[in-house]
Specification:
This protein is mainly α and 299 residues long. The chain is 75% helix and 0% strand. The protein is flat, with a radius of gyration of 26 Å.
Length: 299
């Protein structure tokens, strides 16, 4: 009986149905209008980006056709698509290698960034002692230290992984530290009042409260990990079967195979978009039920 009443109340809350006078002053009398996205707005969100992209491609093709630009200067969209098809056997394995390095670096950055952030916020003196080291690693250009990493690592793949990790690490660390330090002081006092231990406060208060900051660092770190993997491969100049898309870009440039170069760029862009989409979806799953950044306004 109570479950049926609860479901009825939820139904009226979602639809805003008025309640009987006998229920006035009770929880059943509360009617909350949950904002919903209209079908036309959902359609526009999908159609508009593709419409703009399609317009840009048409303009690109028109410029190439009108000015009769040779493909070794600016290939047409059709030539790029043809190169993507013809060179798929070369570009796809390279994309998989770049993806592997990017996601491994991002995973290590997540574990290292969160763990190091928890370590730093345990004491003001610990933060003062160790946080500058992380700042030094962040502000040093990765292209400058990549040759040193290549010297001291056993393989090129390990060097690329370390470079991508160093770039993705700091945004996650910085956002996580800020989140752990931004907990409401009243809630901290409440946990102290009830005698919660330091680890209980961390587990049940600080970590949940820092989740929005962590998600912001995740989105930033995902893109930077891909950028660092490409830049590190440029610096390493790795070739052969274990080379990624960065080497294929350089190879296409040296051979003046510009259509393949554009095809590799498109694959890199699609990989970056996929990473951003996945991290954004993860953030939405974690925050959409309670955090203001993901909750739709009612008015």
């Amino acid at each position: 009986m109570s479950e049926a009443r609860t479901m009825n109340d939820v139904s009226r809350i979602e639809t805003g149905t008025p309640v009987a006078a006998s229920e006035a002053g009770t929880d059943s009398a509360v009617a909350v209008l949950i904002p919903r996205t209209s079908l036309s707005e959902k359609m526009l969100r999908v159609v508009m980006p593709f419409a703009v992209l399609g317009t840009l491609i048409v303009i690109w093709a028109a410029i190439v056709a009108i000015n009769d630009i040779p493909p070794y200067i600016l290939p047409s969209p059709a030539a790029v698509v043809q190169a993507l098809i013809n060179d798929w056997g070369t570009l796809w394995p390279a994309m998989m290698i770049t993806s592997k390095i990017t996601f491994m670096a991002l995973g290590l950055a997540l574990v290292g960034g969160v763990g190091f952030a928890i370590f730093l916020v345990q004491s003001k003196w610990v933060e003062l002692a160790f946080y500058p080291i992380a700042v030094v690693l962040q502000v040093t250009p990765i292209i400058a230290i990549a040759p040193l990493i290549l010297i001291y690592t056993p393989t090129t793949q390990v060097a690329l992984l370390i470079c991508a990790f160093l770039v993705a690490f700091f945004p996650i660390l910085s956002n996580m530290v800020q989140g752990l330090k931004s907990v409401d002081h009243n809630l901290l006092n409440l946990f102290d009042l009830y005698g919660a231990s330091r680890w209980q406060t961390l587990l049940y208060l600080k970590l949940p409260a820092s989740l929005p900051y962590f998600m912001a660092g995740l989105r930033i770190g995902g893109g930077l990990a891909l950028i660092a993997a490409v830049v590190a491969e440029f610096a390493a100049g790795s070739a052969g079967a274990q080379s990624g898309l960065a080497f294929r870009l350089l190879e296409s440039q040296f051979r003046l195979n510009i259509p393949r170069l554009f095809a590799a760029l498109i694959l890199l862009s699609l990989l970056g978009i996929a990473i951003f989409a996945v991290t954004t979806f993860i953030a939405w799953l974690a925050l959409h039920r309670w955090h203001e950044s993901s909750v739709r306004r009612e008015n």
